[in-house]
Amino acid sequence: MNDRNDGFLSRRESPNTIKSCESYSGSLASAARLAFSSREMLHRVESFGLTGNWGWTFATGALVWSPGVHRLLGLELGTVRPSGEAFLAAVHPGDRDAVARAFAAMREGILSDQRFRLIPRDGAERTLLGHSETYHAPDGRPIGAAGLVIDITDRERIGLARTVERRRRRSLFRETGAYFAHIPMNPFDPYPPELLELTGRRLEEFHDDWLCAIPAEEHGYWKGPLLQSWADVRPFTYLYTQILGNGDRVRYRGTFAPILDATGTIDAWAGFTGPERMPIGPAGGVLAEGLESAVAGWHLRAARALLDWSMMDFAKASGLSFSTIRRLEENIETAAAHSRRMAIAALRRAGIRFTLMDGSTIAVART
């Protein structure tokens, strides 16, 4: 008998050994497919132009950039040899020293995530987040590093815009006593921080008596018609008297619009509350969308009549089809909310104003 281990199974090897080998081979094949899939996924992610990865061998100084890094730097593949100097040249001057220090620390095995600005060749400043890992020899010496860079510009811009908007609203409240509110329905919370500050009352006081900052002579209105407005799925506006923290009584106007979920159920209310004497400009964001949801087909027809437009004129001005305009004017539910916004925007450009009057009445006028 041939008992040699020459790469073939001997007769002394059991069926279990054969199954074990087959299982091992299958595992290798699965691992190979997984590795290929991972590379393909990485290529797909990088194709969006928001990420890139790199590798660095300390002994030779050789750097490798993925196509994604080249795209982030605004470079064509093969036009620039990957190097620390080439990368730093694209870093914003204000962040260049910090990134250079991070590169130097990598060689010592010290890692930290870095947020820095980049100015690629197209001149459009971007904000990147870098994450890296260091690889070590058996004796513990750092021998190389690899990392990932992610373009977080849009996230940074959104964060900055939100900060600016919060400051703007805070300034508006300090100067005028007017404020925006987001009132969720689950759990229902109709007491924004500005209301507590304006009235000088604690949240517990409102929980004990929700009309504690409203004159007694207006309680009937709040418990009747106004309470019904909150129950309807329609925007509404109302006038009332607000008792301020110093005891003054000031006439206020509140304007609220529902925010609906995918099933058409009210998820929250968006509102703006301010002194009656305060001129209110055009609403924006979810409040505007909520108010526009109350514009019905007869409002669109009335607006079109004020402009002396035919339905075809309306379609051309809005960029919508004739059939979509017809569905909007006939209040057919298949008309999309996006189409309604486009139609209303076209009417506003032509000088039409939709104004929410007391209650839920919408007036249509031409300026």
From TrEMBL:
Matching InterPro entries: Cro/C1-type_HTH, Lambda_DNA-bd_dom_sf, PAS, PAS-like_dom_sf, PAS_fold_3, Sensor_kinase/Photoreceptor
Keywords assigned by UniProt, alphabetized: Kinase, Phosphoprotein, Transferase
Limits of the HTH cro/C1-type domain: 300-329
Catalytic activity, as annotated: ATP + protein L-histidine = ADP + protein N-phospho-L-histidine
UniProt KW Kinase keyword: yes
Enzyme class: transferase
Protein name in UniProt: histidine kinase
